[in-house]
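To the structural biology subgroup,

Please find below the input and predicted structure for HTH araC/xylS-type domain-containing protein, which we are adding to the shared reference set this quarter. The sequence is reproduced verbatim from the submission form. If anyone notices a discrepancy with their own records, reply to this email rather than editing the shared folder directly, so we keep one authoritative version.
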Amino acid sequence: MQQRPSTTEEYQRKINIIVEYINNHLSETIDLDILAEMSGFSPWHFHRIVKAFLGENIGAFIIRMRVETAARLLRYSDMPVQEISWRVGYDVPGYEQYLNNPANTAPEELITEIHIPIE
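Predicted structure (tokenized):
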């Protein structure tokens, strides 16, 4: 007889699906209600579960994924900043507000300053 996964394992599986979806759709507008629907949770419960498993709310997680992806691309690719900003879902006129780090380093400066390990 096959044992049912625990609630924690089931929640982790659903969170993994959501994280993969986000990583594959960074260039698009990500609708939080659709993410909740994909997970099978109500929007309220979805936000609670995401915060518990990822340690941050879903909006902050999406922003962090976009910024980390942009930083990696700035550092390790030859793509222009404009293309990188589109690839991670930001319009060019507003990209600096998202790609700047807390010290207000411009994205172009991240190319030489940031070190992100690639797994």
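Summary notes: DSSP finds seven helices and no strands in the chain. The longest helix spans residues 58-76.

Regards,
Lab coordination
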